Structures are given as structure tokens and as C-alpha cells.
Amino acid sequence: MHRTFVEMLRNNSEHVSEFQSEFDEVQDAQRPDAVTVCCSDSRVLQDHVWGNDRPGRIFTCGNIGNRVIQRTDSGDVVSGDVLYPVEHTGTETVVVVGHTGCGAVTATYDELTDGRSEPAGIAHCLELLKPHLEAGVDALPSDSDRTEAVNRLVEYNVDRQVEFLLKSDDIPSEVDVVGVVYDFQDVYSARRGEVHVINVDGETDVEALRDEYPEIESRIERLWEY
After folding, report:
1. How far is CA 32 from CA 35, 56, 91, 94, 116, in A?
2. Residue at 75 is within a domain
3. Structural domain includes residue 181
4. Nearby residues of 222 by Cβ (< 8 Å), 6 or more positions away
5. CATH number at residue 65
6. Domain containing 153: what range?
7. Whole-number Å distance between alpha carbons of 94 and 85
8. pTM value?
9. Domain count, the chain
10. Does a structural domain hold residue 7?
11. How far is residue 52's CA from residue 47's CA, in Å, rounded to a whole number?
12. Residue 117: which pLDDT band, with cuts at 50, 70 and 90?
């Protein structure tokens, strides 16, 4: 057996020692405080981002491009992964988590600008992003290099995912929808791993957000106000 998996099992034993008593209150049901939709990039430590150390606290979804959209025969709908805790466990906070240097956004950008193709499974995921990023690509400043373009589009993608949730009849109006970017590339600051708030319930104006949420003023930042 590959040593990587053996090491994973060894780490799981440590997990058991630490958490075996932590499941007592959630063995039969869950009522998570929030659902997060993260990019499944291995550099995004989905639970550690929030210091999560308690089972049942955060319902975590992951996919390339932090997508909330699922394609069905009747059209695009909110992904069941995201909708489940809202529909069945009373969760009233949804957080869309993009990240700097996102590979899915990069691949979508390359396909839209250079016609780059991907294997079918990846292409399917990108097809869910492309319609929502095309206008963003067209709006990019003409002097943007590839890295700058991608990180602007990371924000644009988060905005579009938030927008889709807010427009969906499946998401009750009392649910808070927040868009953030996780930065490990020194794009927003030198504090690697810091989360930067870029969108709250559709509001993207930095000064408006800082005025409304002074308690998190220092964490509200955008690269691109298009």
C-alpha cells in the first residue's frame, strides 16, 4: 500500500484520540451554523481557514471553482451540496470562498481567451463557470497581465456565485450570503491564509461595506471594483 495512505491512516488515529468524544451531541443530527462553498484546491485548508475544531459546526462543500451552480434537465439550479443544509438543517449563513490563483478560474480564462481545451470531466465544470465569467473577461483592464486578470476574475466569480444564490427562490431571504477570497499568495496582504470579505448579500462597494460592518472593517478589501 502506498505510504501516503498509510500516513493518512496514522494521522486519522491521532484524530480519533482528539475527537472521539466530540461527536456525542451530533451523532444523530446536525445543525451547522454555516455552509461554506470552497474551491477544492489542496492549498485551501477548508476547515482550518475558520479554526473549526468542532464536528457539526460548518457544513463544507468543495469543488473546482467554488461553484454553487448545478446543471439539470430543467436548467441551472443551486447545487444540492449547498442547498441541503439550508433546506434541511436550518442553516442561515452561506459563505462562498474563492482563492487567489484559482486553477479553475485560470483554466476558464485561458479557454475564453486562447481556446484551451480540457478533458471532458474538467470541461463540464468549466462550462458551469464560463457563462458567468465571460462578461468579466471582457471588462478586464487592457493592461492586465495574466496573473492580475485571474485574481480579478476570482473576485468576479465569487460575485457571480453570490448573485446566483441571492436570485434563487430556493434560498430564503433571511439567509445571509457572503463572498470572500482566501489569499496565500500575498495578493491582498502579507498575511498568508487571511480571508478577505468582498461581497455581503450582493453589496460589493468597499466603503459601503466598511460603513455597515465596522467590526470587520480591516478584513473588507477588493482588488477590482468594476
Report:
1. 7, 5, 6, 11, 40
2. yes
3. yes
4. 155, 196, 198, 204, 206
5. 3.40.1050.10
6. 31-219
7. 10
8. 0.96
9. 1
10. no
11. 5
12. confident
